[in-house]
Amino acid sequence: MATFKFDAIGTKWQIDIYSDFSGDKLMVVKEKLLDRFEEYDAIYSRFKKGSFIRRLSEKRGKYPMPYDGKVLFDLYSDLYKITRGRFTPFIGQVLSDAGYDEGYSFVNNEIGKPLNWADALEYTSSYLIVHEPSLLDFGAAGKGYLVDIASDMLVNFGIDSFCVDGSGDIRYENKNNKFLRIGLENPEDKTQIIGVANILNKSICASAGNRRKWGKYHHIIDPSTLESPKDIIAVWVIADKTILADAISTCLFLVEPDLLLTKFKFEYTILYKDFSLRQSEGFGGEMFLKA
Amino acid sequence: MEENQNTTESQVKNGMNPAIPIAIIGIVVIVAVGIFMFQGQQGANNQMDATENAQQVITPKEKKNKKDAMMKESSNESMTNETETPAMTQSDDYKDGEYSAVGDYMSPGGAEEIGVTLTLKNGVIESAEVETIGDRPNTVKFQEVFKDNFKQYVIGKNIDEVMLDKVAGSSLSPKGFNDAIEKIKSEAQA
Questions:
Q1: A-chain residues within 8 Å CB-CB of B147?
Q2: pTM of the prediction?
Q3: Beta-strand (E) ranges in chain B?
Q4: What is the ipTM of this complex?
Q5: Fewer CB within 10 Å: C terminus or N terminus of chain A?
Q6: Nearest residue in A to B81, CA atom
């Protein structure tokens, strides 16, 4: 098995390749992946100076849609509608005002409700029109999408058994049908797990408010309350695509699973602050239930 | 010849040979025991199923401890990355399915009953439901409160004790983020 680790889009990545692959070819794969990651960051990061997202926040007007953008915008648009705006890319401005800005100032400025999508932005597969400039944030699904992009690249190289781990957002494929055992980290104690998930040819994403937190906020702010949800402390989602698992894992902090299940297919586990658990029937794995 | 017959007849008339009643009783006893054992066997089978069920309902955690012990053993062998990940195994001892039982308890108002249904999958309680039984107003009220608060709770287990390939938690934050937080903390304490 070959493994390579690297930093990208503000977190740690690890890619494991189980297929037989020559060392030289692996170097090529690694280079191509790193290039692709850099390109992605330069478009979608609100933390990078001169990024596409930053330019959208500065001036109204018409912009070309990035070649990989429609998939992301479409998913956000669907979830925006189904959650009635609680899941929104316009949360970027709110997060920034709350302190989670590109300089990590963590100064709590006054925060207001995010813009209404219909008023601020419209898009097609080839362009975007910004009516009201605002800082967008795709953090809820952006990493998951990149996991899928990396996975597709590996498959295109002829690698059929691998694991792409973007720090909590994982895609695992194995032609030998071996399941991967994934511990579900206890958000209150990183040396512990509260259960194990078993996946094969699936994506799993974790979301919790324990790491990226400052003052009274963490990285998820509910636009309807302008507060970070405190009742739910961690969510895990298993789905066929990592972009979806990632987005849903954030949505579950904000809305009921049944609402999302009307349109999307996924399995979930929700951990509450009293350590009670809510799980979909098909999540599988083993949870460490209190006696 | 005649004498013999007479002798036999007189034997019968005069009193039983003690061997014969003993033999008859013996045969009856043997047959009776046979019947009893046969029926008992059937009853015992039924009883065994019931006990098994009861055990399944009462002690699923025993099975889990066994499984965890098994995991520990194999984890010693598979410390390197080279080892293949084991395929998911099905727990054999407890059949998947729903198990229901009615518990009874005493309340100030009298005897009460409450129903519990558990769904077992792969030896783990997947879901649990509580059913209100009875119609006394207080019973209904208290059982409803119990039901609403009847949740599954989890505990944390040390990562070293469980065989894992990966851990999924919130994303590790970048050095810049952590440094900034530390800086703010120290400024706040100054």
A1: none
A2: 0.71
A3: 97-107, 110-121, 124-133, 152-153, 157-158, 166-168
A4: 0.91
A5: C
A6: A1
